[in-house]
From TrEMBL:
This is Winged helix-turn-helix transcriptional regulator. Keywords: DNA-binding, Transcription, Transcription regulation. The lineage of its organism: Bacteria, Bacillati, Cyanobacteriota, Cyanophyceae, Nostocales. Residues 4-98 form the HTH arsR-type domain. It comes from the Bacteria. Signal peptide: none annotated. GO terms for molecular function: DNA binding; DNA-binding transcription factor activity. It comes from Anabaena sphaerica FACHB-251. The keyword Transmembrane does not apply. PROSITE patterns: HTH_ARSR_2. The keyword Transcription regulation applies.
Amino acid sequence: MITPTTTIPHLIAEGFHALSDPIRISVIELLLQRELCVCDLCDILEINQSKLSFHLKNLKEANLVNTRQEGRWIYYSLNLTQFQILEEYLANIRRNSVFSPPRSCCE
């Protein structure tokens, strides 16, 4: 969740942390194809709802997924804007990194 005191480095760290679990990666892979409700995700991933809810909460707090409620069901989709921020961060590292031989600290 973005708050006025949240910094860009904090958002980036939350995003990568949320992506550091195999179950959450599996959720992302499924949401690449289409929006899904919790019950569909539970069935496909073969995990119980409480375990999945924990992982979805992590993804939502990192702003990586959007939610939409329809009746009593909550549907999840990817927040591509947040993925673009993470992608740009990595691209920046690649563009701006200087490859030089290691130096001794005493040089």
